Amino acid sequence: MYDSTYPDEWDELTRDEAVERAYALGVAAACGHDNRTEYESVMAAADSSYDQSLIELSFDQGRAEALQLEASGNDATEIWSKLVESTTITPLDDDAKLPELLDPAELLNRFGQLEGPPGVLNKPPFLLRNEQDNE
User: Fold this and answer.
1) Is 15 in contact with 51 (CB distance < 8 Å)?
2) Do the Cβ atoms of 48 and 33 come closer than 8 Å?
3) Mean pLDDT over residues 115-131, rounded?
4) For the stretch 73-95, what's the b/e string if a residue is b when 16 or more beta carbons lie within 10 angstroms of its beta carbon?
5) N or C terminus of the chain with fewer C-beta within 10 Å?
6) 119: exposed, middle or buried (C-beta count within 10 Å: 0-12, 13-18, 19+)?
7) How far apart are CA 91 and CA 100, in angstroms?
């Protein structure tokens, strides 16, 4: 499972690669394919204790999600394909545009709607002091 997706010949891993591998190792462990040696190698590749914590959390997350799918009646192959093989991210081209819904909201772009200088804008009532309070 894990061996067919991730090559086992590596010298260094970035944090993201290590976290991704740890997640996959967690999924594989829940499916009955525990690879403790690879997990320890990934942990040893971490630069700091913070990275080791991320790797550990990622392993636990993958294992937990796989166990949830297993409890709902999925077999190991389905679990692996849903959680690991389907999470491939393809980067956007440089000339690709964001979908319309991700464009800045029209309500946030109110610069042209304000009339007058900022000093003439009314303050909300809770920021104003009554003259009686100053006496």
Assistant:
1) yes
2) no
3) 65
4) ebebeebbeebbeeeeeeeeeee
5) C
6) exposed
7) 18
Structural domain boundaries in the chain: 2-87
For residues 69 and 82, the answer to whether their CB atoms sit within 8 Å is: yes
The pTM assigned to this predicted structure is 0.63
Alpha carbon distance 65, 57 (integer Å): 12
DSSP string, 9-63: --S---HHHHHHHHHHHHHHHHTT---HHHHHHHHHT-SSHHHHHHHHHHHHHHH
Q: Quick one: tokens of 57?
A: 């959390």
Cβ pair 49, 57 in contact under 8 A: no
Cα–Cα distance, 135 to 118 (Å, whole number): 29
Structure tokens at 54: 């991320």
- pLDDT tens, 25-67? 999 999 888 889 999 999 998 888 999 999 999 999 999 999 9
